């Protein structure tokens, strides 16, 4: 029956287990996924456990879940040992552990996952990857603990989010995406390269009030010429902050915090917008969530 568990249910099961073992002890985070995957699967699925977690030279992808070779039982989680970031490796292992728990029966030969698979959390991208990411994010960054670090009303700096990335042993992008899922603020993260938006993610309130970029299935969107993302020479030590008038990123003012990442070869812009936007259309929408969801789907073409 456990194969029908949702990503969230698996993550909650493991989170309760870890809370029980560690309580509030300092070593609760970051979650030691290799040991957890091996020990938990050995008890829960003794005939089909994760028997190996190891780095290897992987040519074109970041992580994989492989069936053990004939004569051996279980599965191997392999990550690309060329990845320099400990956080990216940790998230990759958790993502593959998610595939093991959620998808190994559907994919008896296993799965190989690229960098995009770990970073695109939207289900429009690819559902099984979104599920593995939801599991990994929930396991590594439980919301109750994250809220204690940055509450839902706080406007975090890159250092605040970087502190959480450190705490949970994940990349800054992963910590920022997790924060965007629960913040009450209107904020948008835009990831760009060479002056074009690769993808973007909005907080629920930003999405609801029309602050989002749709990138899937569209021609590339250029970053605004007056944005920090378009002016890397304005960054100091790869980071910067700028307040924008209307008509830079959106038809309203916003604050942009930008970080150029050498590691990934892209720029992250975190855009903080004003707290509340009130138009008659959105007032109506807030009163009627269902109608609003329908509208959002229509506007974004999403599901
Ligand atoms: Zn994957």
UniProtKB/TrEMBL annotation:
InterPro entries documented for this protein: IrrE_HExxH, Rad_response_metalloprotease
IrrE N-terminal-like domain span: 63-179
Transmembrane segments: none
Pfam family name, one: Peptidase_M78
Domain of life assignment: Bacteria
Name under which the protein is recorded: IrrE N-terminal-like domain-containing protein
Organism encoding this protein: Tsuneonella deserti
């Amino acid at each position: 029956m456990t194969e029908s568990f949702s990503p969230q249910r698996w993550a909650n099961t493991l989170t309760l287990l870890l809370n029980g073992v560690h309580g509030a002890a300092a070593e609760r985070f970051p979650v030691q996924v290799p040991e957890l995957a091996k020990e938990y699967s050995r008890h829960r699925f003794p005939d089909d456990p994760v028997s190996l977690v190891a780095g290897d030279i992987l040519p074109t992808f970041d992580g994989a879940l492989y069936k053990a070779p004939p004569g051996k039982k279980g599965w191997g989680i392999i990550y690309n040992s060329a990845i320099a970031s400990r956080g990216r490796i940790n998230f990759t292992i958790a993502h593959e552990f998610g595939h093991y728990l959620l998808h190994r029966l559907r994919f008896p030969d296993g799965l190989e996952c690229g960098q995009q698979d770990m970073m695109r959390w939207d289900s429009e991208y690819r559902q099984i990857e979104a599920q593995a990411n939801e599991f990994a994010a929930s396991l590594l960054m439980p919301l109750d603990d994250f809220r204690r670090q940055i509450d839902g009303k706080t406007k975090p700096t890159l250092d605040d989010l970087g502190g959480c990335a450190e705490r949970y042993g994940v990349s800054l992008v992963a910590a920022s995406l997790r924060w965007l899922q629960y913040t009450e603020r209107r904020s948008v993260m835009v990831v760009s390269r060479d002056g074009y938006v690769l993808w973007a993610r909005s907080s629920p309130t930003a999405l609801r009030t029309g602050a989002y970029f749709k990138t899937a299935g569209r021609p590339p969107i250029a970053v605004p010429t007056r944005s920090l993302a378009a002016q890397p020479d304005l960054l100091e030590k790869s980071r910067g902050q700028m307040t924008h008038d209307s008509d830079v990123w959106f038809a309203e003012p916003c604050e942009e915090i930008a970080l150029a990442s050498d590691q990934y070869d892209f720029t992250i812009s975190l855009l903080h917008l004003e707290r509340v936007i009130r138009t008659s259309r959105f007032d109506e929408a807030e009163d009627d969530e269902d109608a609003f969801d329908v509208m959002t789907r229509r506007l974004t073409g999403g599901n």
